[in-house]
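Per reviewer request, we include the raw input and output of the structure prediction for the construct analysed in the revised manuscript.
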Amino acid sequence: MADNAFMNPQILTDTANKLVAAGKGLLAMDESTPTCNARFAKLNIPQTVESRRAYRELIVTTPGLGECISGAILCDETIRQQKKDGTLFLKVLTDACIISGIKVDAGAKDLAAHPGEKITEGLDGLRERLQEYFQMGARFAKWRAVIAIGEDIPSRSGLEANAHALARYAALCQESGLVPIVEPEVLMDGDHTLEQCRKVTEEVLRNVFIQLNCQRVLLEGMILKPNMVLPGLTCPTSATPDEVANTTVKSLWRTVPAAVPGIAFLSGGQPSELASARLNLMNVRFKGHLPWALSFSFARAIQQPALEIWRGWEINVGAAQAALLHRARCNRAARRGEYTAGMEKR
């Protein structure tokens, strides 16, 4: 078994700092098989093991990716896959100076007696799975909780159940030598306002950090992966980039301890350019006033343009990789407060 976090907290702290260092961020490529297949189906890409392997090879072999990406979140299928020549994806990532991570939750299921609310499962047997992933070469993990906003939800019990599961997962990760990515996502679905999202996001984060402390999680050895504070997708009132940046950072100030080394936002279905612009504005406006790094942990906001170019055809790999690297570079610039709309004119 790996060293316990409290036996050697420096390893966890060093890894967490590397994940948010030097203007880099995380690439989430941990889509479940059903989710990946659904995205393939929209583009008439065969929904097969080989198609998924080929697509992931396209991603991990993108030249220059390690200049922008510090860590890649994989799923169980991907962490065991190889290039066509037999090289494990884990080795490809390591050679590119990218730290490998693993999604370990078993997905969000209906929370009993709580219509409209979900609870993330996967704690049973998690200790053994984490130890296996550590031995394989993973150095961080991810667990996602989903919180919906609606009539009378989220409930107190729904918030506490998900916060408790996140904290138990995080403690088990650190026990096994893995940095936990703690992802409480307030979903964009619905017609809620920016202010409603702010209130729920702050309540979610308060609950999460109460439980993390109860479970004795080393805050210096974890990364928070929250949503940006946004109005719902069907809200009749939109929010300006300034409003999103100001509200999001102020909510984090109120709820996230300074001991946490980094906050890596999820994209949550935001358009690629808008996710980059919002992250950039936060880093411009609050540069020098934040106790933690503001980074990214994007999936579709980095991958989608490449997927739409690739469409399952090997002849398109080079162009798809160029699109992937472009989005990664845009987000690296956003981390530094250097992103501009002009960067989109490639």
